Amino acid sequence: MAAPVVSSIAPTSGPTGGGTIVTITGTGFTGAIAVGFGSADATNIAVASDTQVIAVTPAGSSVANVTVVTAGGRSAINPAALFSFSAPAATGGATPYYIDPALTSTIVGSLVNVLSAQTSPDALEAQNILMRRLALEGDVVGSRVPPPRNITEIGGYLNILGELKEGAMREQTLAGILGVAGPLQAQGFISNATPLSMVALPNDRPAGAAQPSIPTSAYVRSDFVSAVQAALKTLHAAGATLPLIGPSVITLPKGGPGAAVPANVLAYLGRTLNIAPQTALAAPGTDPIALIRASGTTDLFAAAANAINPATTPVTPANYDALQCTATTKATVPLAAASFVPLAPVLGAAGFYQASPPPQPANATDLAWATFGNVTGLVAGETLLGDELTLLHRPDAIAASVFASLLNAVWNGATFV
């Protein structure tokens, strides 16, 4: 095994008492067992990679050559890797208003050892944060701002938090000042990862006047993807399509004074499918989607996909009445020998259902008919809104949302109360 090579260090100086965190860059550091600062070894080391080692300086004086020791031997002395020990600058006897608490070598070593022995996702993320901070900043605590000395400085800090839209942190700060219990914050390290996500599927964009306005992707919650794909396969086999609309990222409505809870909570849980409304109600005979009922009946109109494309499992034609709407009016038009696939049974097999009874639009701007909801896995009297929100949203986003005070709301079979 070849000896390691040290190419540079940062920082290049520190106090004689030791305790400076130094990042050593070079090659062959895998399995490093010691870092030397002259004749003394570092009090603690952490091997970040084959090209980077982090070490805590021992006490020293003057200038020391920095070397790394592995099973292949000790690295050669490099004039570009010299560490200068120097006494702290005199302060003239005046005690500064605020001294940032430095980490001792013992604390750093213990922290590194604890984290390196853990394998949980939170611990791995903590390792990444710590190593990145040590490599870029040379410390862990040094970025903390001094505590405010008076009410003016407190106001300034609160204003900054408001401008940065850090609502949860601002509320917690105010609670601390007032000596009352603040909003419950997530414990440990906040991760960007959530158990579920919104997944992009290729969207149906049938030819026609509405095609340019139909998005190229349809977004479905990750645990519902396979069921929705099966529904689309059924419709495509019949020569029908299902154009959908919806956001790629679901953003929770902000909380605060006067903020109202949305009526359709399922939409913020990724539990809805929305048919592109521009694909229906204009020309039922050729629109991709229509609201139909059996000809000559008084049944409620129900959403159906128009089977107007070549099919491997053709639909038997029948006579229907269909809704035709403008922005202010609606009318019933007859359709003879038309082929439609009712959406209720197809989407129901995927877990998505319309409201019951099916909404009947009064005009083209009445869009309730286009939404199908999914309540799969929601147990009446047991499922909590907070548990559902955490499947798709970060804890800090939930804490800043209109749902923050409703996390213990329970599903009653129709909504969370």
Unreliably modeled segments? none
Spell out the helices and strands N to C.
EEEEEEEEEEHHHHEEHEEEEEEEHEEHH
Query: Over the alpha carbons, how many angstroms does the gyration radius reach?
Result: 32 Å
Measured between the Cα atoms of the first and last residue, the distance is 66 Å
Q: What count of structural domains?
A: 2
Helices, by number, come to 8
Mean pLDDT over the residues: 86
Structure summary, number of beta strands: 21
* Beta fraction: 15-25%
* Helicity, as a percent range: 10-25%
What global shape is seen? elongated
Largest sheet: 6 strands, mixed
Which structural category fits the helices and strands?
Answer: alpha+beta
Structural description of this entry:
This protein is an alpha+beta fold and 417 residues long. It folds into two domains: 127 residues, Sandwich (Immunoglobulin-like); 224 residues, no CATH class. Helices cover 20% and strands 24% of the residues. The chain is built from eight helices and 21 strands. The strands form five sheets. Strands 2, 4, 5, 8, 9 and 10 form a six-stranded mixed β-sheet that branches. Strands 18-17-15-16-19 form a five-stranded antiparallel β-sheet. Strands 1-3-7-6 form a four-stranded antiparallel β-sheet, with helices on one face. The termini are far apart.
